[in-house]
Amino acid sequence: MDIWVGAVLLVASLVAAPIAVFAILFYFFPHILVRLFMRYQAYKSGVEIKFVGNQDNVFCYGEKNAPRPNKTSIVFLHGFTSSKDQWVPIIKRLPADIHMITLDLPGHGDSSRPGEDSDMSFDRAVDLVNAFLELVNLGDKKVHIVGSSLGGAIAGLFAAKYPDKVDRVTMACPAVQTPVDTNLLRQVKKATSKATDQVTYEDCMLLTENLQDVKDMLLSICFSKDLVKFHDQIFQGFLTLRLPKLPYFLRLFQSLTTVNKLDHLEKMADKITVPSQLIWGQDDEILHVSGAKLLRPKLGDCHHVNIIERCGHAIHIDRPGALAKHIINFYRDGESGKDD
């Protein structure tokens, strides 16, 4: 009888222990759960997290597969306040034989944060992406560079400055002053009228200081509103991971009112002569879909303009399958010689 009681107690303790750990993490350290979930998603998708750097910068990135001699690598750049994890749902939907890298831009994710007096310009961001490609031995290879929002503008500007390093460029809802205003663009314009040091977190809907800010942001970037139904502890974990980066994000937003004007990509669009692609969510409330009509005629060699229905600014959340399909179709244009 004692043996059975001992066995029951042992089984009960083995079951109870992980439940207790989960409960402690969920209620007291939800950011650890959020981070573990993101790492699990990367691992499940075959993405290995790595670091590389020099005396000035440390870059964190996710990599799937190794470069292949006769196959173009894809490099993904995320949006403002996001991270490399944004692209994991897309990477797992793309063919398994492609070499893919998703980069944490400076100050985002796990990459190092530039100093207070650092150059915050788009040009500097483009040069840092180039430095990263050199560090991962892709500096002498043409890549398919894919970016969304802020990353979309950087991708386009990279293609304009380094056309010899770009096979093709995909810009998903890139940061640009669209013909139709949005709440965010109105905030940028209003902040432009202020002194830089007077621009605060309250001047940008993407700079989240509390739980309600996080929910409001998700409502604005997503077409689907189901995300806000998650438990508040999930949002708290997400918020906790973002808070230490807020001062840098604020400096980056302030730069949009000074050195980084949102018409920069439009002005440089005619310099983008490599094959290009525009992707936009039909219901984007952050950067209006009218931006696609603005940019297309200015691009030197625009092959595709893909407008995704029932989709907001966060295409990777709303319609990851459609986004992956459009990217791979454009990628295959190069493989099949359709660019010629």
TrEMBL record:
GO biological process, one term: acylglycerol catabolic process
Keywords noted in UniProt: Membrane, Transmembrane, Transmembrane helix
Regions crossing the membrane: 6-29
Reaction(s) the record says it catalyses: Hydrolyzes glycerol monoesters of long-chain fatty acids; 1-dodecanoylglycerol + H2O = dodecanoate + glycerol + H(+)
Predominant location: membrane
The protein's role, per its UniProt record: Lipase that preferentially hydrolysis medium-chain saturated monoacylglycerols including 2-arachidonoylglycerol. Through 2-arachidonoylglycerol degradation may regulate endocannabinoid signaling pathways. Also has a lysophosphatidyl lipase activity with a preference for lysophosphatidylglycerol among other lysophospholipids. Also able to degrade bis(monoacylglycero)phosphate (BMP) and constitutes the major enzyme for BMP catabolism.
Record's protein name: acylglycerol lipase
Native source species: Elysia crispata (lettuce slug)
